[in-house]
Every structure is written in structure tokens, then in C-alpha cells.
Inverse folding.
């Protein structure tokens, strides 16, 4: 962290004395003493609610951001506005929320074809297309238990 940012962080924490300490007076020193830096920050943050910490850091112009939980992501209007979560139809589960393709380029933004397929759902077509197997060979492999058709579970089974 740059010295100027560390100084603003220390002011935010009510510890403007820390940048004067030889253990913390440069990025190199802070890197060598990162456990002590972390302890100072942890002691301060433990006294405040997350929203309070964010507000104080913003007021002091200290770049910081909470680590989002999945719940935070779903509630964040920025994620919604950017279309970062896509709802993809699934024949069994209904709508499945998934992360959008990243990065999204203007001419080739990418897209999600499906929420996922069942194990074995493409085996026969792959063996036919790439190995030239015919229906008789595929049926023999299936009878021997080498390949199988995975039936799609009913919605009740998928909730178990």
C-alpha cells in the first residue's frame, strides 16, 4: 500500500502515529511487518460494524471494498444493472442463476448456452461423431455398462 494511502488509513483508524513507527514508515517495512499491520487494522475494524468501516474509509479517501458474499452479489444494484447474473433456463431446475461471461467484449460478448448437462448426455453423439460408432456398437457399450444414458431426474428428485 502506498505511503499516502497508509497515512489516510491511519488517520481513519485514529492512529496518525503509526506512519512514524519504523515498523510501518514505508511499504517495505509494512511488508516485512505485515502481521503487525494486520493486527492494528483488525483491532480497529473489530470495534465497528462493516458499514461504519466503509463509511469512515470512504470519508478518508482510502480505497477499500468489502468481500462480497453471494447474498451481497444478488442484492447489489450494480451487479443487476450490468447484467452480471444471468438466469438460464434448465429443464429440471427451472431458472438457474449463473455468473455472466467475463469479460464481455462489444463485438463478441459471449453467451451461456445452458446451465449444464447431465453426465453421459453427450456420450453417444461424441462417439458417433468422432469415432464413427454406429447404433449397434453404442447399444453394446450401453448393455455392458461402459456408457449409459442418464435420464433427467424429475423435479422432485432434483430437490433431494
Amino acid at each position: 500500500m502506498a505511503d499516502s494511502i497508509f497515512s489516510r488509513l491511519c488517520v481513519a483508524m485514529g492512529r496518525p502515529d503509526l506512519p512514524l513507527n519504523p515498523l510501518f514508515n514505508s511499504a517495505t517495512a509494512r511488508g516485512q511487518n505485515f502481521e503487525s499491520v494486520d493486527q492494528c487494522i483488525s483491532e480497529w475494524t473489530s470495534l465497528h460494524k462493516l458499514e461504519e468501516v466503509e463509511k469512515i474509509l470512504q470519508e478518508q479517501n482510502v480505497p477499500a471494498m468489502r468481500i462480497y458474499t453471494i447474498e451481497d452479489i444478488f442484492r447489489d444494484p450494480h451487479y443487476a444493472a450490468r447484467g452480471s447474473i444471468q438466469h438460464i433456463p434448465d429443464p429440471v431446475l427451472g431458472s438457474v442463476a449463473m455468473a455472466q461471461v467475463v469479460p464481455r467484449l462489444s463485438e463478441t460478448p459471449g453467451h451461456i448456452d445452458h446451465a449444464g448437462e447431465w453426465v453421459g448426455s453427450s456420450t453417444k453423439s461424441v462417439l458417433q461423431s468422432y469415432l464413427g460408432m454406429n447404433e449397434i456398437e453404442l447399444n453394446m457399450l450401453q448393455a455392458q455398462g461402459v456408457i449409459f444414458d442418464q435420464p433427467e431426474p424429475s423435479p422432485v428428485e432434483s430437490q433431494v
User: Anything to note?
Assistant: The chain has nine helices and two strands. Residues 123-152 form one domain. The mean pLDDT is 89.
